Request: fold
Amino acid sequence: MPKTEASKTDASKSAAPGVMVPNLWNPRSRQERLEAPQTGRPVRFLTDDEFPPLHFSGPDGTPTGFVVELARAVCERLSITCTVQARRFDTLLDALAERQGDVVAAAIPLTPALRARFLATRPYFRWPARFAARSDRGLPAPSAEALAGRTVAVLGGSAHAAYLKAFFPKSLAKDFTDLSAAQGALKRGETDYLFSDGLTLALWIGGTEAEGCCGFLGGDYLENRYFGEGIGFVARREDVALSRALDDALQRLWDEGKYTEIYLRFFPVSPF
Reply:
């Protein structure tokens, strides 16, 4: 029976009734406060403005979102001046390499290939996999035994489909080609569960399209092999002092409750 990464590492804690906030920091890694290097100019953050709730354009056109506001809080914590500029997502890393910015704050997955080219902080957000079900069915929390013989909607060929096959082998996978079709099947009661990306499911569960039909069941699944390491702030390899200062500031924002405050603004239904 698989265990969620959260249960192994105490990666979640309750911040408000029904809302789980991920704790992705190791308290044993705390160290003497690190100061950001003084460059004589603002630290330039680069982001994308088309991926809510992580980063998107606000009503006045200014970049906002969980990642952007976390970046602004880090700058305030480090007492440095920062700017945030939106660019097309697929140009962000090249712009960083070409010194058109200093830090990328966007949903770019942390991978060995990325780390070979750039520095990255520890993850400040990860992509949990979650099970969802109709709220009126009274179905049991997912386990290898509970899912035996029950239908589970997944995207065919996805990491979630592979995980379901590996750890819930007696479940009956129903493959879909797109998530909206799988969500519709769950809403209509044509499948018992849906197993997919927790962020996308959280937005759907809390949105109007679901019409309150469904909710999460069980915990989050965060195995790196299937679902990746998450996302962090990305800087050039020579900017070691800046990257370390960003890491330290993220830890302190968690300790002080600021991370939780920002998280709750953008995740009324938590993916965790």
